[in-house]
Amino acid sequence: MTKDKIKELISQLTLQEKIDMIHGNGLFATKGVERLGIPPFITSDGPRGVRKDFENDKWKDIGLSYDYVSYLPCNSALAATWNRELAYATGKILGKEARGRGKDMILAPGINIMRSPLCGRSFEYMGEDPYLASEMVVPVVQGIEENDVSSCVKHFAVNNQETRRLDVDVEVSERALREIYLPGFEAAVKKGKAKGIMGAYNKLRGTHCCHNDYLLNDILRKEWGFKGITVSDWGGVHDTKEALMNGLDMEMSVTDNYDEYYMASPLLELIESGAVDRKTACTKIDEKVRHILYVMNELHMLDGERSASTYNDYQDKAALRQTARESVVLLKNEKNILPLDKKKVKKLLVVGENANRQHAPGGGSAEIKALYEITPLMGLHMLLGGNAEIVYQPGYFNEDVGNIWANTGDSENGQADSLNQDAEATQSSPEPEKKIKSEEKQKHQKEMNEKYQKEAIEAAKDADAVIYVGGLTHDYDTEGQDRTDMKLPYEQDRLISELLEVRPDTVVVLEAGSPVDMSAWIDGADTLIYSWYAGMEGGIALAEVIFGDVNPSGRLPETFPISERECPAVVLGEFPGGDQVHYGEDIFVGYRYYDTYDVPTAFPFGYGLSYTDFVMTGIRAEVLEDCADSKSVKVSFDISNIGRRAGATVAQIYVADKYPKVKKPAKELKAFEKLYLEPGETREVTLILENDAFTYYDEELHGFKVNAGSYMLLLAKNADEVVDVTEIEFRCSTVSCAEKVQI
Ligand code: BGC
Asked: Is the pLDDT of residue 447 over 90?
């Protein structure tokens, strides 16, 4: 359909019909216009797969037997693969299943920067680095949208905490906004051609992000040329006039009074009352409808030529397994305890409640009704194939359901309740009542922990090998709530320490979506594996790594600080902060802070081990372009696998300005490549760094700038381990100010 046809269609719509198209008429759908062949627009969560179906008007699971789906690795797991091809494959499965389930827009991926390890939704996001997030989000979006389905990249923007998420007002410098918090969204729009963007709940500089003129009109549309639909987060709209004027296209919410939504009857009333100029209002409404019809047209919703799709395709499981495998991060392997030898382990003790827990149904709107989920315990059984006796001990007591949203209050899902609680928490106590356990419950928890711990320690004495699988659950990694510290729950610190005392060779595995404090036992542990909520194939992938069928190649997408007390946002008292949060750490987020200010960490950004060894050396660079409007540099180096196993590593290139004229991080990630090498193989690798690799945001110029001068290119294994350095010189500076795109 041409632009003119869309124009013609708009001219045939009544004002009421247009208004019906721009707000929810169901919890996940808008109204169509049947007489003109415009269907309703159907959305669904989310980032880990297509969510189960709810009744149109209630947060009530319909209870279908056919909405079980593929459960994908969470975004932090995906980011830990540092593998763009797997990001594409994962996006493709997500889009395929969304279309297969009859959805038009999948509310994913989430890419907010991990400003603090305590943010409850870190597992839904892609770590702390804007370059890594940008590189991973683009293929995810492209994969999704190949299926005649729109992505909805969320939450735009600076949505970095759950505490007071509906109203918290973020004060952030323009430089940090541009360098840290926006690049992922910009890449999704400009390179990924994302058709959907979801506004964040919070405010930016006093205005809610869902109707923030600066974010939605100035940056998203005018600077980046976004053509698709801006959707509010559910219940994220607070003002009719702002929603009308400031760039929001579609208002969604959590209640069933659709006609009372800000962009429903109140909008009509606003126009009728003369409080806004009628002509301007109608132009704005037409614009919104045009964006919606543009996307509908791109998805072939209007021409009857939409591609069909499917879900739960068995062929997709291989990609999901591979993603889960490559997401596993080996953090410690002293004395080469790992991999374990299948032939030698005849009696295996598995300790830890997470070994036996399915995580798919938790986390908030990222919950999944998984077709199946292989737990670590099941994965170990599958892998050892009856040749070993596997004894399981929970080790600690966890009676939490793993989903703080399940069956709470009147609504069956608790999503609407969670928003009410957010609102109440803003006014009163920040601690949701349901999390405060009664003394009696705590006493019971303590007694059970002691009992389970004792049993586990006893069993550890006569096993050939002991694997501990603990970590967090979605009672901690969840929407609607931040953690208050990084401590492991359920007295796991004591259990792990005791286990290590009787069995120093215990293989320690933590499953979680964000960093935890390991200081109580880390020095005594020879092994440590970090696996995330790695999707339906996660448990078998983990078992394959432990027993060496798979050589681990995951790398941390975020720094693991020793505790939350090192995190700059926490140090400044600005996480979770008050009603207004000042991002006082500015651009010094994650390794940009720890590295620049020499703050020790538990594990640095980009860290991860392998069962083989790689040598990277000989970095050399050539300036290909040094003009006033662009830069381009060719970087090459050699890499060899000097061990006995095939494996993969991630070569990371950081850029450091040698004599910075403004304050800059010690170095910043600007290129990476995941490389698979056979034992003994050597390869030359060449990467190209473009202008973006050298810029910083100049607030006076309102643009990105590269100063002439010397830059170091650092070849590194992770943010703390630079293996080789070279230097280049730019003779001229570049300035790239935002051009306004004509829309
Ligand atoms: C979440 C979104 C989600 C939406 C719809 C909100 O509470 O913040 O990420 O897509 O609900 O379920």
From this structure: yes
User: Is the CA virtual torsion 676, 678, 682, 683 positive or negative?
Assistant: negative
Instruction: Write out the catalytic residue numbers.
Output: 233
Distance from the CA of 319 to the center of ligand 1, in angstroms?
26
Beta-strand runs (E) in 194-317: 196-199, 203-204, 207-208, 229-231
Which position has the token pair 């979801």?
198
pLDDT at 723: 98
For ligand 1, the distance from its centroid to the CA atom of residue 449, given in whole angstroms, is 35
Q: Which residues line ligand 1 (CB under 6 A)?
A: 45-46, 107, 154, 233-234, 365
Residues 13-59 pLDDT 10s: 999 999 999 999 999 999 999 999 999 999 999 999 999 999 999 99
What is the value of pTM for the model shown?
0.97
117, 105 Cβ separation under 8 angstroms:
no
For residue range 95-139, list pLDDT tens digits in order: 999 999 999 999 999 999 999 999 999 999 999 999 999 999 999
Cβ atoms of residues 150 and 226 within 8 Å: no
Q: Residue 512 and residue 514: Cα distance in Å, rounded?
A: 6
CA-CA distance, 496 to 494, in Å (whole number)?
A: 6
Q: How confident is the model at residue 429 (pLDDT cuts 50, 70, 90)?
A: very low
**Overall size of the chain counted in residues:** 743
CATH-assigned architecture of domain 45-252: Alpha-Beta Barrel (3.20)
State which of 234, 254, 482 you would mutate to test the pocket of ligand 1, scoring each by most atoms of that ligand within 8 A of its C-beta. 234
Could you tell me which CATH class the domain 314-401+430-555 is placed in? Answer: alpha beta
Q: Distance (Å, rounded) from C-alpha 496 to C-alpha 519? A: 11
What CATH code would you report for 614-737?
2.60.40.10
Q: Which helix (H) or strand (E) element contains residue 684?
A: strand 682-690
* Distance between Cα 232 and ligand 1 center (Å): 9
